[in-house]
Every structure is written in C-alpha cells, then in structure tokens.
Amino acid sequence: HILQVVCCGLSQEQGSVEQISLHCSEGALDWLYPKGALRLTLSPRLPSAAVGPGGSSSGLITACVKPSEDFHGAQLYLERDGVLELLVGDRLETSPPPRVRCFSRLPGEKVALFLQATPHQDISRRIASFLYELRGDWTARLSLDSNPVSSNEGACRPCNNSELLMAVCTSDFVVRGNIKAVDEDGELRAAVIKVSATRVFRQKYALFTGNSRLTRSGEIRTLLQCGVRPGSGSFLFTGRIHFGEAWLGCAPRYKDFLQAYAQAKLAQELPCELDVD
C-alpha cells in the first residue's frame, strides 16, 4: 500500500504537535508552510512473511526516508525510546541534496519520526517533503545511509542456494540478462549495472523495457564496495525496488542457478517454481 500525506502548517498553532500514524509500507509526506511539529508513528501492516532473500524473519523492520531536493522549513529527527537523533537538517539554498537515511526498529522498540518546523520570517516558500519505505529485514542488506553501508559487511556476500531460490520467489524483479556496462552514481555512492535482459520472469514495475521482442534494457544498482565489473555470460538478476529504482539482491550466473534449481526440484525442496524451459 502507498500512502500520500499532505499537511499544512497554517492550521497549526505555534508549538503544537500533530500526531500521524503511518500504516502503509511506503508513501510520501508533504508538509506545506511548516509550523509547530509533526510526530509520525511507524506502524506498518507488513505481510506476515516480510522476509529477506534467505527466508528468515527476525521481526526487524528497516525504514528509509528520502528527502526531496528542495526540503526546507523543518528538521527531521528519529525518535527512539524518547531520544531524538537528527536525520535531515533544514537546508540552505546552497546546501547539497540531502541523502537517503535508513534505520532499523527492533521488535517492541518504540520508534517515530519527528518533524519540527524551524523559525522563518517568510514560510510561504517552505515545504518539507520526503518519501519513506518500511520493509522487513531484507533491507538490512541494502542501505543507502552512509553509516549502515560502511558497517554492512554481508551486503556483497554471494547468496547460497537456499537464499537464491527464496529470492526467486520473493524479489520485486527476476530477470535473465547480460551486463553491458557498469557506471558509477556518485550521489548514491552506487554502481549502476546496465543490463540487457533476454528474459523477464517478473518485475513489479516496468523497469526493463524496449521495443525488441528478444531483449529489453534496464538498470540495477548495487553498492560500490561490491566491486561489480562488466563480464561475459548470462546472469539471473534478482532484487528489490528502492524508491523506484532496482537494487541488486542475488545474481548468480544463469547456469549456476539452473543447477541449483534442478537439484532442489529433484529433492522436492523448491520454495516456488519458475518457468525456466
């Protein structure tokens, strides 16, 4: 479910705090003419099987917020057990674009987002907007926030066969294709894999498109630290959609996937079937 929230500070008293609950797994918030404060409680109605590629569920929920490039008039804090941590400050006209910030909530932990308006003489041009995503523990492997990325040692680890077969069942996209090139996204500190897709098994959104019946083109992002390089051969790409962009999960060579798939099928241990013929 996707939620669109629009708030207007003109109806708020100075110093007041408006309470809002975010039940959808993703959405957007636009705070026009910020005044007072907003407290956003994170209460996502995630599926019972909100799990990662490995199929495990720890009860951990990872949230990411992506401020708009013209985020003005407020500061965004993470409130964890009553303690505030600044996520996004009020931007000046000359400030660089704010980065995506991610954090995790443990089972039973009280977490909220706290938006506080900053005093300005003229609030008419102030709009504090951001996108948010709430996910199960699969996003623990994928975080664009600078701190989790540097400490996320398992983000580039190849998937084992169990993780691979579960990723085929649960990913937002499953595509067979070749790597045409690898570019660098300096803003996100990410590698952009240019993929020529020979078969699209599944895609949540139209990520891989083209007029040809034989191939489609698309882009998949992954962390720079994973050191992806262009190479020959066919791969099976799986992964998640993160703020409208494809991010890499498991990506074995296609022949290795076929071998793992055949072994699991023979042992009657397939979590789901894929039309690989």
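Next protein, fold it too.
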Amino acid sequence: MTFFSPTQVFLNYRGEQLRYSFVSHLVDAFERNEINFFVDKYEQRGKDLKNLFLRIQESRIALAIFSTRYTESSWCMDELVKMKKLAGKGKLHVIPIFYKVKVEDVRKQTGEFGDNFWTLAKVSSGDQIKKWKEALECISNKMGLSLGDKSYEADFVKEVVKAVRSVVAEIGLEEEENHFGKKKRKDCKCELPDFKKSRTKKL
C-alpha cells in the first residue's frame, strides 16, 4: 500500500560518501512509498547554496544524515545551520540519522567525525565554527535513528521511512487542528512521535 505525501522531505548528507549507497537506497524507498522529497542531485549545476536554502524552506521535514565524512563539507554544515534556525521557529521537523557514527561524536565533535570537523574549522571563520557547533549539538540532541556497523541497512531504511511517515501524519494532524482553530500542538516540533520518551533508536 502506498502513502502519498505532499510534504517535502529535504535530505542533508555528505554526497561523496553516501550518494550512491545509503541515500540511493533511501530515495528508492521514498519513491516506492510515494513520499515527496528533495535531494541535491536534482539541482542544476552551477547554482549556489542560496538555492538549497530555498529548498529547505520549502520543506516541512529534513533528514540530517550524519556520517564520518559529513563534516568535510561546509555546505552540509551551512545547511544544518539553516535547518536549526527553521526548526527553532517551528517551521521544520528535523530527524537526525546517525549513519555508522556515534551520537556522542556528532554532539561533541570527536572521533573521525570530529577530526574532519576540526580540519574544516582550520580554514573557516570563528563565527562559522560557532554556528556549526551549535547546530551539531542542537540537532544531535533530538530524537532520531542510529545505524551501527553490524546492522542491516535494508531494515534501517524501512525504519527511516516509518519515522518519516509518522511525522508526516503528525504534521497533517497539526494542520487540521489549526484549520479548525484549535490550540496548536507543540509535542512534535522536530521530534519523532514514536520516540519522544526514548533515546535515539539503534538498529
């Protein structure tokens, strides 16, 4: 049974590491489930980061897919800062995905993830570094999903699809309540409804 969603999901990830592996499998699953999404491979070459910011603003859900090489890219980091800003305003639901990287390494910029972050920091401004660190700490503290080295990726993709569908349904409920003038729900802002009282789910 398919599940059509007009709600756009923005995928924030390190292309060189994940584009032809995990993200391609996730995109296939989204297409099979008729989940509307945006991934940067569909952008025209030569456009700048402002165009991606616009894509983020057009979305209601964003997946921050953290991997060991995520922090090699200033674009990934700048997108994350934008996502944090919109999430803080209640305009975007952010789901952190920890792909074979520890939550603590993302939060504290340690391990291989941290090594890449500090390498990037050496050629970045103090203001950029501050915003990046705040975004990493904020987003990694949200409820999300984590894939370990010995886990099955196919099962993990199914869990991500399930989580996205859950948030899409929650957004629909919020919009319905707002339409009828009821009190706006606050319990789903940037969180996964299924995991509100639990830590990041590991597979």
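About the second fold: The radius of gyration is 16 Å.
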